[in-house]
Amino acid sequence: MFDKDIMTKLIHPSAIIHPNATIGEECTIGALCVIGEHVVLGDNCTLHSHIAIDGDTHIGENTVIFPFASIGHAPQDLKYANEPTKLRIGKNNTIREHVTINPGTVQDNGLTQIGDNNLLMIGVHVAHDCVIGNDNVLANNATLAGHVTIGDYCVIGGLSAMHQFVRVGDYAMIGGMSAVENDVIPYGLVMGERARLAGLNLVGLDRRGFEKTDIKILMKVFKALFLGKDGTFKDRLSAVSNDHKDNETVSYMLDFCQSDNNRPLCQPKQ
């Protein structure tokens, strides 16, 4: 709960805030914003103007939201029947104009979750039951269908689209205007109208401070797995796992490849 007398200087008089909403200290709420009953804003959040936030939505401290964003409204799922579901957004996020983020559905965990330090550029859509990690960049008009999972330190190119249930591993990069139908390995680079694995995100790995020796090992493993000709992919995966089981960086990628999921792995173009 907030004290209107204390908060007046930070809240524009045209903003409509439900009296049961929870507003943290030193939040700035601009003109014509509408904040629903169950919304929780952390400290030092900034809502510029014309922003609508509803549902059981919690937004972490120091998050900045730009005009015409729609946060926490009913998911675009025909099965949704007004069940109580949640949206949780972490701290230090930047959410630009016209971004839409939906809460979860009871067909999944009832939760859409976004971590910390993410940049969602203009027009990004995050559908129901998505899970986004930390320190990601989603460029203009990137679209996530339901149940998509994105790790940490990923770059999702502008006008790209993620098929439902797709996973994107840490440090991956999705090229602009890509339609991603299959899982993207950690450290992977995918691109194309029907996205194909084009290699490793070498520039991203270098910028994130990966050791050159680890990058060289990842390149060797990538070639063995995805460009090798000996045996099946499963055979090559088993062989590589035995050779590099003590390398944490490689093991993360191999564990991702071996885990069960609804979608197959994105592969290089044949």
Can you offer a commentary on this structure?
Helices cover 18% and strands 24% of the residues. It is an alpha/beta fold and 270 residues long. The chain has two domains: 144 residues, 3 Solenoid (UDP N-Acetylglucosamine Acyltransferase, domain 1), CATH 2.160.10; 53 residues, no CATH class. A ten-stranded mixed beta sheet has the order 3-6-9-12-15-18-21-24-26-27. A nine-stranded parallel beta sheet has the order 1-4-7-10-13-16-19-22-25, with no helix packed on it. α3 runs antiparallel to α4. The N and C termini lie far apart (59 Å). The relative contact order is 0.08.
Strand content: 15-25%
Q: How many helical stretches?
A: 5
CATH 2nd-level architecture of the largest domain: 3 Solenoid
Q: Report the structural category.
A: alpha/beta
Strand order across the largest sheet: 3-6-9-12-15-18-21-24-26-27
CATH superfamily heading of the largest domain: Hexapeptide repeat proteins
CATH class term of the largest domain: Mainly Beta
Oligomer designation: single chain
| Major sheet characteristics | 10 strands, mixed
* Amount of helix: 10-25%
Based on CA atoms alone, the radius of gyration comes out at 21 Å
* Number of separate structural domains: 2
Q: Report the uncertain regions.
A: none
Tell how many strands the DSSP assignment holds.
Answer: 27
What overall geometry do the principal axes of the alpha carbons give?
A: elongated
The pLDDT mean sits at 95
Per-chain topology:
Blueprint: H1 4-7, E1 16-17, E2 22-23, E3 28-29, E4 34-35, E5 40-41, E6 46-47, E7 52-53, E8 56-59, E9 64-65, E10 70-71, E11 86-89, E12 94-95, E13 100-101, E14 111-114, E15 119-120, E16 125-126, E17 131-132, E18 137-138, E19 143-144, E20 149-150, E21 155-156, E22 161-162, E23 167-168, E24 173-174, E25 179-180, E26 188-191, E27 196-200, H2 202-207, H3 212-227, H4 233-243, H5 248-258
Parallel strand pairs: 1-4, 2-5, 3-6, 4-7, 5-8, 6-9, 7-10, 8-11, 9-12, 10-13, 11-14, 12-15, 13-16, 14-17, 15-18, 16-19, 17-20, 18-21, 19-22, 20-23, 21-24, 22-25, 24-26
Antiparallel strand pairs: 26-27
Helix pairs in contact: 3-4
